[in-house]
Amino acid sequence: MPAIDYHAVAPELILSGALIAVLCVDLFLPEKRKAWNSTLTALGVLGALGALFTLVGERRTTFGGMFVLDSFSLLFKFLFLAVAVVVVLMSADYLNDSLRSSQGEFYFLLLSSFLGAMLMASARDLLMLFVALEMVSVPAFLLAGFRKTDPRSTEAALKFFLIGVLSSAVMLFGMSLIYGVAQSTNLAEIGAALKARGDDPLVTASIMLILAGFGFKVSAVPFHFWAPDTYEGAPVPVAAFLSVASKAAGFAGLLQVAFLAFGGQTTAWGPGLAILSVATMTIGNVVALTQTNIVRLLAYSSIAHAGYMLMPLGVVAGQGAAIQRQAFAASLTYILVYSFMNLGAFAVVVAVGRKRPWNLISDYEGLSEREPGLALAMLFFLLSLAGIPPLAGFWAKFLVFGAAIDSGTAWLAAVMVLNSVVGLYYYLSVGAKMYLRPAEDPSPIGVPVPLVVAIAVALIVVVAVGVFPDFFNHFAPGATLIAL
Amino acid sequence: MSGYFWQYGTIAALSIFGVAFVAVAFLFNRLMRPRKPHREKLTTYECGIDPVGEGWSQTQVRYYIFAFLFVIFDVESVFLFPWAVVFERSRNPGLVLAEMVVFIGVLAVGLLYAWRKKVLEWL
Questions:
Q1: Nearest residue on chain A to B92, judged by CA atoms?
Q2: Is the distance from CB of A217 to CB of A246 less than 8 angstroms?
Q3: How far apart are the C-alpha atoms of A21 and A240, rounded to whole Å?
Q4: What 3-state class would DSSP assign to A123?
């Protein structure tokens, strides 16, 4: 019997324990104590973070090579747990205001989804990858439909469910073909088998199917239709979760599959992803221009950002290991930075939505008079999303841009710069509304403490990484999967 | 290589034969049978009882919950059998037993949840 390395899976075990504890404790909590659920959830996430700290610098393999803990998965796990802390902080008052009685289920589902994301970062086997991906998605379907009295929420959940199931089916079909060709489900063994086999239309077809499946998960054009409707209908903290953790989990899986299993086939998927990334960023940015709802605006902006994250994967075709490493690090860094700036923006949306539940962009008029701190934080997040120099978003874009230039695909870099200009317009138009228009109702909104902490965490990351971009050199290049 | 593709020929022949068999059988059935429709014959067949009401009817949502509960116990038994085989051969039966206890414990939480949410009460 193969021994299980319990230390390597300790963070996941703690998270599993916490989610079962939340479900059980909620059953016996009286109605007015339901807020304890969020405390318990936060404790579970912090416990998992503590366990993760004991694993820094380790490299462990367990479950017969299905589960690998290395610098790449550690980095993603830290990201997911940090995101989990911020999402729980965002949810606390949101749920107390509107969804008081079903908090236990909410946190249970949220933790299940994060558990899936954690497993995703360590999954080095097609089966494990698929199970992890489903574990991220299935609770997220329910979370999207959590505002049961609102038909928009039901629509959000149904759309997300149908698209999610379809994408899983497409991906499974690709995986089954790959298994037929490579006779293995282990990513590294698949990589070796495919390298030995050389060019084969069947392999190309199955790579396309698998990448299309991931395209749905990260909401890349043309697989993006579900994202705006789902984000708009879902509770706002769930939209934040979907646009950050779910997307990052999709990218974690995509990076592993692309570089470990299909590392020898870069010419098969590189050009396709380049076109996909151009379409994604262009359509995301252009459609965002016409939005009147802030959540839809952020949804299209997150589609555009998926394009920027995909771009480094589009430039690796036929390149040497050095360029591949650079592209890998650029994509990884973008995901990390994007997560925090987007979470911050969504946290501000939650705060403003306390008074204006329709989340219109016009609700932000005169925010600087009503809540100067909130408006300033939102401005920082928007400028970072747009990629203005002293903030983290700039350096993320800079690395992606550098990867495109160094690999000799200057046209991609040019498309990216044009897109950033389009993005700047709609981000700044929200900023202008906050600072230049008078407020219709000048009363302050009142931001609860957990939300202040959530915004502060995101803001500190965005500013600190912007001021000390050298920070990247400590982890991103070390966390590569590409062997030199 | 042509031999490889000829294997698809077998499948094609089988498909054509299968479709033709059903089509011919139905055609002959239609040509040879007597045709005397009347009102009782044209009503929907429902175990021999006269059909009542519309074809679209609502089902008690409770049955759906029973289906859920069934899944809980079904999953449990599906894993119990292979586990029993492993348990017999294991050199470390304590650990194997503990793992199954954890597994059943997690499923029992599902039952606990159903009980506390008053799913187990009829009305």
A1: A1
A2: yes
A3: 24
A4: strand
Q: Does B113 touch chain A (CB under 8 A)?
A: yes
Name the H helices within B33-121. Answer: 39-42, 61-89, 93-116
**Contact present, A121 and A55 (Cβ < 8 Å):** no
CB contacts, 8 Å: B68 with chain A: none
Single-letter amino acid, residue A197? R
- CA-based end-to-end distance of chain B: 67
Q: Are A442 and A80 in contact (CB under 8 A)?
A: no
Can you give the length of chain A in residues? 484
Two tokens, residue A328: 């890998």
Q: Give the amino acid at B60.
A: Q
Name beta bridge partners: A186.
A125
Taking only the tens place, the pLDDT of each residue in A68-104 is 998 889 989 999 999 999 999 999 888 887 777 788 8
Total Cβ atoms within 10 A of residue A474: 9
* Mean pLDDT (chain A, rounded): 90
- Residues B59-92, buried b or exposed e (16+ Cβ, 10 A)? eeeeeeeeeeeeeeeeebeeeeeebeeeeeeeee
Answer whether A143's CB lies under 8 Å from A110's CB: yes
The number of helix segments (H) and strand segments (E) in chain A equals 20, 2
Phi-psi region of A351 (alpha: psi -120 to 50; beta: other; left: phi over 0): alpha
A28 and B90 within 8 Å at the Cβ level: the answer is no
* Cα A213 from Cα A15, distance rounded (Å): 27
pLDDT digits (tens, 9 = 90+) for A296-344: 999 999 999 999 999 999 998 888 888 888 888 889 889 999 999 999 9
Which pTM does this prediction carry?
Answer: 0.88
Tokens of A324: 């591949």
* Contact of A361 with A297, CB cutoff 8 Å: yes
Which runs of consecutive H residues, i.e. helices, occur in A99-218?
103-122, 126-144, 151-182, 187-197, 201-217
> Quick one: pLDDT at residue A484?
40
Q: How many CB atoms within 10 Å of residue A125?
A: 23
Q: Give the model confidence (pLDDT) of A115-140 as tens digits.
A: 999 999 999 999 999 999 999 999 99
CA of B48 vs chain A CAs: smallest distance (Å) = 39
The DSSP code sequence of A22-79 is HHHHHHH--GGGTTHHHHHHHHHHHHHHHHHHTTTT--EEETTTTEEESHHHHHHHHH
- Check whether A462 has a pLDDT greater than 50: yes
Residue B57 CA to residue A396 CA, distance in Å, equals: 57
Mutate to test the interface with B, among A6, A12, A27, A142 (most CBs of B within 10 A): A27
Asked if the Cβ–Cβ distance from B116 to A23 is below 8 Å, we say: no
Q: What is the ipTM of this complex?
A: 0.74
